[in-house]
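Usage

Read records sequentially. Each one opens with the input sequence:
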Amino acid sequence: MSFAELRAQMLRRKPLVEVEDEIPSDERLAKSLGLWQLTAIGVGGIIGAGIFTLAGSVAHSVTGPAVLISFLIAGVASAAAALCYAEFAGMVPKAGSAYTYGYVSLGELAGWFIGWDLLLEYIAVAAVVAIGVSGYFGFLLDQVGLTLPEWMLGAPDTGDGRVVDLFAVLFCLGTAWVLSRGIASVGRFETIAVGIKVALVVLIVVLGVFHIDSANYDPYFPFGVGAVWTGAATVFFAVFGYDAMSTAAEESIDGRKHLPKAIIYSLAIAMVLYVLATLVLTGMQKYTEISPTSGFSTAFESVGMPGVANIIAVGAIVGIITVVLTFMLGVTRVWFAMSRDGLLPEWFAKTHPTRKVPTRVTWIVGVGAAILAGVLPINTVAELTNIGILMAFIVVCVAVIVLRRTRPDAPRSFRLPFMPVIPLIGIGFSAYLIYSLPWETWVRFLAWLVVGLVVYFGYSRTHSVMNRTAPQPSE
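and closes with the structure output:
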């Protein structure tokens, strides 16, 4: 094969518009998600471990009261990317999110690169959050005086005698079971759970505001102004999630109309709650006294409200559950889309005959997340997440600029304002946050991409559905 032919394969683009009738019935997804169910899935993916764990951890040891600014910086980067996602979602309401967006605008290799990246990142996010839920379960069992064998309470090297985090394993498998029941069931569960979670955050703000001591905000930058950027790179984990929701585009009743709104609504709701909650947290306690693991619970304990502290612990479990569900939903839809396109074996793209969900992929993802969550410490798994999502944001921001130039007349139900300023802001912020991550994260990320390139050139480029027709000319 000549270099020109290889280049044509790597740059061929998926058609912007697919005729749904051409998709085999056993490779279609059921449509049952409305605007508010999509928004609930987005909010469910954003609000969770970030607000209940990261806010206190970063305030305590990285930024002090300036954690609020870290959230705002991360929010700006996320908002710029969210608007880019919204334009794409209105144009390409298909499963796959950033993978599909990259494929239709930048070509097959770029699509593969981001899809392969998201497979690892989303599974890692689900595993991280499952480990966090397991910790809260352990806390509640201690509260009622129930002692369990040490071997089942955590991964090796997290404590003497520990072998596996059994709660995290069971939680991942249980989430896979919920996803396998059908998207309508997932939508109903997310809507109820997110309602509980938002009500809890509102309760925290309403009760906590009466216990704010302005002296706790001084000094505002105890670790220096530059620390807020390090904090932003860390809390960025807390302000994405709508991207995983966009992977369910094909299961929306009216994706072109509802997805752009759901993306914007979910991020806006989450950022308002984050700002109010961090103001309350750092105002109730001095940053040096905030618990890195259970900030809000200890804050309310410190002001003589232990009952509220226990309610927060229970609510945190409910809140974090929705994050696992959202990201496991995301990874299964990316995997499904890549398999339907032939970049991975098409066996994975078969859906359940009645529920119309990709059950094969769902259970594989559930088992994979369970293994990661069961045997690896939380920090090791967490390091696999942020860099990949930031890379996906950069690809989407670049892709929306490219598609405006190559397909300016394509129908768009939402048009990104201030083009190309907003996507360039998203690219700049995301690149800087990537730069702020430790070098070990880069090594793991690059190793995963090398494996992906081997898979692409060894299997995907020749099995691609696009390879069965003439290579698409670059525009």
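Summary fields computed downstream for this record:
- Residues 108-143 form the longest helix (36 residues).
- Confidence is low (pLDDT under 50) at residues 470-475.
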